[in-house]
């Protein structure tokens, strides 16, 4: 029985690796932000730069999550904050381009953000394609992501992809 369980687990991991596109391992996900209580303000961000030497231009991609926490009910006084989340919670994607061009999209729902614990893998889906029934919270293969996501971002060890519908 133990050998059978190991074999099934190995097959499942192999399929999952193929879906996500990883070859060595599939990192485990961090606990959702709502399960990581914090008493102080918190922000984590990632910066990626893309330079096109032939064109002599660069782009900066900045992804961040701010204040991903659940507050005690007595600290949530406002009527619009019924879910006990920090009023400062925010997930954001920003792109800065040549000639001071700038675009940003953000969402106050920090539970849309996911991250791997032991590898560079994180993302957020701001908006799903209207026709999609299934909603993934974790990493998706790049092709699957392009089909399902209307706006958001996903950073995996071998790819950076996103669509921003911002200002």
SSE order and pairing:
Layout lengths: L1 H19 L22 E10 L4 E10 L23 E7 L5 E6 L5 E3 L6 E7 L13 H7 E8 L2 E5 L4
Antiparallel strand pairs: 1-2, 2-3, 3-4, 5-6, 6-7, 7-8
GO molecular function, one term: tocopherol cyclase activity
InterPro entries: Tocopherol_cyclase
Task: Describe, in short, the structure shown.
With 167 residues, the chain is an alpha+beta fold.
Write a structural description.
The chain is an alpha+beta fold and 167 residues long. It has one domain (24-163). Helices cover 16% and strands 34% of the residues. The chain is built from two helices and eight strands; from the N terminus they run αββββββαββ. It has a four-stranded antiparallel sheet, with no helix packed on it. A hairpin with a 5-residue loop joins β3 and β4. It holds the Pfam family Tocopherol_cycl. GO terms for molecular function: tocopherol cyclase activity. InterPro entries: Tocopherol_cyclase.
């Amino acid at each position: 029985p133990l050998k059978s369980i190991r074999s099934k687990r190995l097959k499942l991991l192999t399929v999952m690796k193929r879906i996500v596109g990883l070859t060595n391992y599939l990192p485990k996900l961090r606990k959702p932000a709502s399960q990581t209580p914090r008493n102080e303000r918190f922000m984590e961000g990632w910066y990626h730069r893309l330079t096109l030497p032939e064109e002599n231009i660069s782009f900066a991609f900045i992804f961040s999550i701010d204040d991903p926490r659940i507050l005690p009910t007595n600290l949530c006084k406002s009527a619009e904050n019924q879910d006990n989340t920090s009023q400062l919670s925010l997930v954001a994607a920003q792109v800065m381009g040549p000639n001071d061009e700038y675009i940003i999209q953000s969402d106050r729902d920090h539970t849309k953000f996911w991250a791997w614990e032991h590898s560079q893998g994180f993302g957020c889906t701001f908006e799903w394609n209207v026709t999609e029934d299934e909603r993934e919270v974790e990493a998706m293969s790049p092709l699957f992501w392009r089909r399902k996501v209307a706006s958001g971002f996903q950073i995996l060890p071998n790819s950076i992809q996103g669509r921003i519908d911002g200002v």
